[in-house]
Amino acid sequence: MSPIRDVARRVLHFVVRLAPPRTRSWGEAMIGEMDHIDDEWDALLWALGGTMALCRCSLIEHLRNLRNLLAAEVPAQKEAKHLIKSILSGVGVAGVVLIISMLTLSTLQRTYWVEPSQARFAQLLFAVVVPDGLCLLAALALWLPQRRLTSGILAAGAALGAHSIIFFVA
Known about the structure:
The chain is mainly alpha-helical. The chain has helices at 3-18, 21-34, 40-110, 119-142, 147-169. The longest helix has 71 residues, at 40-110.
């Protein structure tokens, strides 16, 4: 085998190895057809033409795979966005409940309905028991239809509970 035909065969073999699986059989057929070309330079031109065709098909195949991969990621991104919005909505609901409870506590302390000796109990009731109780009730009511929203409510309720324990123990 001449050096020209050897180079042509090596180039074509290299491209066939790198080609996507769907086009490898086509590349192997090109190598087989090259053996039936008598002239060395014609065989080299055949190999270069086959290399160009395989490279073009490989590029198209890789771009198609990339497009399919990116198309598959878009729904996942939308799902993640929806998940984050739902959880943050739950945290917002828990925050509103806490604000309403704290405003109620503030109003009760200013109206003299709560005696100074019962102030600690009122703080515990309206800063911990009512908000955490409402968060738990909301979580129980919404668990099946709105699981993601419920997880946000529970996360905010747990954070509030932990903060309240630290505040009242210290």
